[in-house]
Amino acid sequence: MSDPKYDVFLSFRGEDTRGNFTSHLYAELCRKKIETFIDNRLGRGEEISPALYKAIEESKIYVIILSEHYASSSWCLDELTEILKCKDIYGREVIPVFYKVDPSNVRHHQRFGDKVDAWKASLTQVAGLSGWDSEKTRPESTLVTEIVEDILKKLSSCFLSDYEGKPGIDMHIEQIQSLLLLELPNVRITGIWGMGGIGKTTIASAVFEKLTTQFSYKIIILNVQQEIERVGLDHVKSKYLSQLLGEDIKSSENNFSFDPRLKRTTVLLVFDDVKDADQLKDLIGTHSNFGQGSRIIVTSRNQQVLQNANADNIYQGKGTDAIQCIFLNMKEIKKVQLHADTFKKMHNLRMIKFYNYFGNGSNVTFHAFLKSFPNDLKFLHWEYFPQRSLPKDFCPENLATLNMSYSDLEQLWEGIRRYAPARVCSGRGVQVLLLSGDRVRRSLALPNLKRLNLRYSKKLIAVPDLSFCPKIEEVILSGCVSLTQVNSSSFLNNLNLLFLDGCTELKSLKIHSNILSRSSGSVVLRDCHNLETLLISGRIDHVVLSHNFFYGYSKVEEMEAEIKLNHEGNYEIGESFLDTVPSINDTCLLDISKCKSLTCLPAELLNLKFLTEFSLRGCLKLEELPEIKETMENLKVLNLDKTAIKELPSSLLHLVGLQELSLQSCTKLKTIPSSIGNLSKLLKLNLAYCASLETFPNSIFKLKLTELNFEGCSMLQTFPEILESAESFAHINLTKTAIKELPSSLHLLVGLEILSLQSCRNLKTIPSSIGNLTKPFKLDLTYCESLETFPSSIFKLMVKRLDFEGCSMLRTFPEIPNDIGCLSSLTELSLQGSSIVNLPESLAHLSSLKSLNLSDCKLLECVPMLPPNLNQVLAFDCPSIKRMVLNSCSDPGEGTFKFHLTNSQELDATSLSNIVEEACIKINDDAYWSVVFCFPGGAVPCWFHYCCKGHSVTMKKVSPNLCSKNRLIGFALCALEA
Q: What are the residue boundaries of the TIR domain, all occurrences included (predicted)?
């Protein structure tokens, strides 16, 4: 893990807050000199870039602005998931801001896609964190101010963790603080003097970070001399003044004496690597230019420079023998040449940190191969290390952290060789990497190593046997694309994190059961496309599989794996295993999704009582499940989506605690066992797109399901009779099935609220019993191309919309009874694209109908008296229509009326006259503010007084009285289209 580069990372939905709240917050953060990462790209792709992942990892605090559409963006949700991952792993601070949204709504947001589980978990987690609510902290300016103050407090508390592990840093800070005499009200200059490379910049930066919240204005300028040579003294001076005061100060204006603000407040200035006292005096002037209590820290390699600059006191660094820490930021350094014996005499060196934010590791060169590192080194962090191995005599028994990500390492130490062993665990001839010679084995003993990070070391072919690292807690080998095998993690009792995501050549992995026995354990195998063998060794009496185990498997697109859990792989099931249920964590999850080569499961796997969730989603070759031998009370979720399952075992009834069963896209599944009716706790059953499913048992209606989804089951032809009343079923989705008819017992689904029959192309009739359903109802019959009629009892339903669009065989519309009961709620009726010939006179009984769509009814001839309260009639392209009668007793309602009748040349004169008359009435009715009529005709009505030919109308000499207050009602326009 790299040290944080940014103080704050802003996560937000651009279209919601970029131009308002986020911009105000970012401006205030910048004004307070808080280093903030903000992604200002307006057009962003579907996936987060590696640079953005790196920025997230290199930030101390995450501010998540949860706005209205934040949870609708896959980009934002992926970003949020990565942020929370860093929070869990690195202990970073997360500050949620609920901007014009309710935290409880964020927690229960439902609009997700393929990554639904991870996104739900992320939103639920962030909504539960303590944060800021824009509805409770007002006005917005106060909210911004208080958030920034909160961030400053958290940054101050982050100081200790930022510099934890830098040997001797506390001692340096304390000594310099004592020289600063912060309790005195005067202005003081303190110098830090010493040779190059002994940590002057690191010490000054640490003091600056610790004291920054005590000063109103503060700034640190690194490499002053280098900047002066590059851009000139005046530019450096104006630049730091601009940053200090938060405004653009031109070079011609950079005289301190003219800006009284600096004299009225405390200032903290750090000037690093100053070589000329006169230049320093020009930069800062005199003590009187700053407010009482201000402090100026200057680092230099020349003691005389500090004395000539009137430093009040000077802190002296030591030589190489006293060096405890080396810190090089390669972003700021063009080129570094190191001698082979650079570190030879640094006997007290405890930490080395080389940072390369932009991958310019090539800027570090060696006269010869690096010969040595101090053996007392505790912390080695060298990104983009340019050599193929570490010195062979390096024996760092005290090393606690080794971080050499993005390196050119092929192996950590010389002496590792490759050979073909006589016996390989996987039995597939996989080559094993071992250490040669006992001497090398002894030299590689790392008894205190806790963290090993070699991520994206793309040339790495081998890592040491981790058994020599008994205290190791984290092993991060992500993106090591040349790594083919990781030695066994046996005896690693403290291992919590094993990250192997992106190790595309890794073929086998053997892990110990220890990591599975801790809730904090994480094994990441995402994008291990060639993984063939996974062996779990050790005795398993008690297993806790946290949500992190196999994290990322569900994202793999090309995973090929064979999961071996048997005695031959040193996998043992202890005698007490089945008796440990009371002590098992109830959030136990096993996710081996998208293992595309997996063909069968061990019989024991579905009989492990500790499982609460089990996912085999995307195991394309898995054709059957093993029989379930004993009752399983803990398994709540079973996901078999996109497997090759042909049938479910009848022993499914033993899953008595099952609440969710998903079989979506199981294209070979033909039947469902009747024993499914015994799963009394089952609440969700998803059978969508089971393309071979032909039927299902009526015992399914014994369940307490709220939704039954058969969408896309293209072979499903029969819907069984319902034998008893079922209250829980609220939604049944039969979209795109081959259903021919529904059972007469449909009315026994007394709780049914939604029935989706869209594109049921074989459905011919609807049972009359449907009218006995009493709940508010939604019925979708669109594109039921074989539907010829429907019962009049349908008008008894409490339905607001009836849509028969695309029902091309529908020819008859039943009479509507005088007592239509609940159909008074019907407001929309669409017969678009149907074959209706005549509508009944009783259509006028639909007194609540507001919209009638008859478009594309090619055979429609007669439309009798329309319902009285319509405000929209659409009859585009109705070539056969001869008669249509508008209701002159219509209620203006909302004050709008639309009437479209096109391609209707057969319309009789009486109907046309009725339409023209009705148009005149409505246009002149003050209750309407918008009236649109479009109908066949050959002349403009005579009551339009201003007429002209062409494509425009010009009004001349309009009377001033016409436009006076309370007189102008509106304009009526009529156009004749040739």
A: 4-155
Cα separation, 661 vs 593, whole angstroms: 15
Q: Is 350:324 a contact under the CB 8 Å cutoff? A: yes
pLDDT at residue 427 in the model: 28
- Nearest-Å Rg of the Cα atoms of the chain is 38
Indicate whether 89 pLDDT > 90.
no
Sequence-distant (≥ 6) Cβ neighbours of residue 507 within 8 angstroms: 426, 428, 430, 484, 485, 530, 531, 532, 533
Q: Could you give the CA distance from residue 678 to residue 675 in angstroms, rounded to a whole number? A: 6
pLDDT of 424 higher than 50 = no
In the predicted model, what is the mean pLDDT of the chain? 78
- Give residue 743's pLDDT: 94
Distance CA 721, CA 700 (A): 11
At the topology level, CATH places domain 6-160 in Rossmann fold (3.40.50)
| Helices 200-211 and 169-180, axial angle in degrees (round to 10) | 70
How many whole angstroms separate alpha carbon 178 and alpha carbon 163? 19
Matching residue, tokens 């359903």: 773
- Three-class SS state of 107: helix
Pick the CATH number of 166-318 from 3.40.50.300, 1.10.3860.10, 3.30.1370.60, 2.60.40.150: 3.40.50.300
Rounded Cα distance, 811 and 801, in Å: 20
The answer to whether residues 908 and 884 touch, using CB atoms and an 8 Å cutoff, is no
pLDDT number for residue 290: 86
Q: Which of 468, 469, 470, 465 is nearest to 485 (CA)?
A: 465
Rounded mean pLDDT of 583-592?
A: 51
Domain 598-693 has CATH 3.80.10.10: yes
CA separation for the pair 849, 867 (Å, rounded): 7
Gap between the Cα atoms of 189 and 296, Å rounded? 5
Give the span between the Cα atoms of 444 and 442, in whole angstroms.
5
Residues whose CB is less than 8 angstroms from the CB of residue 304 and which lie 6 or more positions away in sequence, other chains included:
277
Q: Which of 172-176, 487-491, 779-783, 879-883 has the lowest mean pLDDT?
A: 487-491
Tokens representing 711?
């969408």
Phi-psi domain of 498 (left: phi exceeds 0; alpha: psi -120 through 50; beta: other): beta
Q: Note the pLDDT of residue 549.
A: 37
The Cα-based distances of 473 to 227, 398, 480, 744 in angstroms read 43, 15, 19, 64
pLDDT in tens, 623-665: 988 888 888 888 899 999 999 999 999 899 999 999 999 999 9
What length does the chain have? 978
Assign 3-class secondary structure to 45-109: CCCCCHHHHHHHHCEEEEEEEECCCHHHCHHHHHHHHHHHHHHHHHCCEEEEEECCCCHHHHHCC
The answer, yes or no, to whether residue 777 has pLDDT greater than 60, is yes
